[in-house]
Automatic annotation (TrEMBL):
InterPro entries: Cyt_P450, Cyt_P450_B, Cyt_P450_CS, Cyt_P450_sf. The keyword Oxidoreductase applies. PROSITE patterns: CYTOCHROME_P450 (PS00086). Keywords: Heme, Iron, Metal-binding, Monooxygenase, Oxidoreductase. This is Cytochrome P450. It comes from the Bacteria. The lineage of its organism: Bacteria, Bacillati, Actinomycetota, Actinomycetes, Streptosporangiales.
């Protein structure tokens, strides 16, 4: 059956507008299907929840291209700033060592200490929005982007001017022709920041990373190489910023277009944590997993994915699988949604999940409390989504505040 499957291009407007709906058409008839990625690569997409969750822990799927069947490969980012040596490009034992050294700073109890500061940042941003004379504002640059950027900047120890550079760089990242330039600029920024932290350490994550350098030991050491430190700093920003922006913006849109659920949340603010879980499942800030490849032939149902093939897990499709979530296309804030795979599963489960959850809870709670008459300023069908395969995010979100 494998050879008979057609190759489906992801470079389609229907995919960018709704990855979940795009993959739903294959989930029953072609649950494991070959696709053409935006960069031209052939890959395989896994669309059913049970298959997706199993694949996320399958050791026959690897992340480190040095283990590619038939010979080692390299990542394009090795030539574009050298930010390739992060968690998503490594397997155990290297991955285990790196994650152990990084996750302490992002443990739930440490994130809990940030909540008060995050609430202060949210209140300040909402004050600025309230002061705008117009009733209509784009929520993305005014709030959804600024909140995670500021929180992440303070957590990592990135000064305001550096945060501005990050925001400007990421604005161009969706353009494939700009990706290498953006990567090099961010690599240069973090190289300078890490050097400054080594010289004058502070109470922030970049200082912690800079302090565990161990270039002499590499894989066997208990520290991090310079390349790993730089790559982890890059990954923390790339993964920790965009995903949370999409959760806040897309989550707000989902609530505004489901007024009964919005009214339920306004009436019972204690539902906020459960609402964030359901919104993560429903809006899917990340469309599919990061790159993996098969170390050997991998049978899934009636399909055998050959060794040496790229594989992506369609998180957005798994979270809308009716076999796992009844009536999956309905937003239901009373649903038990904690089994979702929005943060992945297994050893690559998102290390920043506690931070994203906390920011989502604070952002939505503060926004809805400050603006009781918040509404969309344009019809939903006029909204457009970014042309990005990995991230599912709005290009703009015009809202009416009063």
């Amino acid at each position: 059956m494998t050879d008979a499957l057609p190759l489906i291009s992801l470079d389609q407007e229907s995919y960018f507008q709704s990855p979940a709906n795009f993959f739903a058409q294959f989930r029953e008839s072609q649950p494991v299907t070959p696709v053409r990625m935006l960069d031209g690569r052939r890959a395989w997409i896994i669309t059913r929840y049970a298959d997706a969750r199993a694949a996320l822990t399958d050791r026959r799927l690897a992340n480190d291209v040095r283990r590619w069947p038939g010979g080692s490969r390299s990542w394009p980012s090795e030539d574009a700033g050298g930010v390739h040596a992060h968690l998503l490009h490594n397997d155990p034992p290297v991955h285990s060592r790196m994650r152990r050294l990084v996750q302490k700073a992002l443990m739930p109890r440490n994130v809990a200490r940030l909540r008060t500061r995050t609430e202060e940042i949210a209140a300040d941003l909402l004050d600025q929005m309230s002061a705008v004379p117009s009733d209509v504002i784009d929520l993305l640059p005014a709030f959804a982007s600024q909140l995670p950027l500021t929180v992440l900047g303070e957590l990592l120890g990135i000064p305001p001017e550096g945060r501005g550079m990050i925001l400007a760089a990421l604005a161009a990242y969706d353009d494939p022709g700009e990706a290498n330039r953006v990567t090099r600029e961010l690599a240069a920024l973090f190289t300078d920041l890490l050097a400054a932290k080594r010289a004058v350490p502070a109470d922030d994550v970049l200082s912690v990373l800079a302090s565990v350098r161990d270039d002499g030991e590499g894989d066997a050491g208990e520290g991090l190489t310079s390349a790993e430190i730089l790559s982890l700093a890059f990954q923390l920003v790339m993964a920790g910023f965009d995903t949370t922006v999409n959760l806040i913006a897309s989550g707000t849109l989902a609530l505004l277009t489901n007024p009964e659920e919005l009214a339920k949340l306004r009436k019972t603010p204690a539902l906020i944590p459960a609402a964030v879980e359901e919104l993560l499942r429903f809006v899917n800030p990340v469309s599919h997993s990061s790159d993996r490849f098969t170390l050997e032939d991998l049978p899934i149902g009636d399909v055998v994915i050959p060794a040496g093939e790229w594989v992506f897990i369609a998180i957005s499709s798994g979270n809308r699988d009716p076999d796992r979530f009844p009536e999956p296309d309905l937003l239901d804030l009373g649903r038990e949604a904690t089994g979702h795979i929005a943060f992945g599963y297994g050893i690559h489960y998102c290390i920043g999940a506690p931070l994203a959850r906390m920011e989502g809870e604070v952002a939505l709670s503060a926004l809805l409390d400050r603006f009781p008459n918040l509404a969309l300023a344009v019809p939903p069908d006029q909204l457009r989504w970014r042309r990005n395969s990995l991230m599912h995010g709005l290009a703009a979100l015009p809202v009416r505040l009063r």
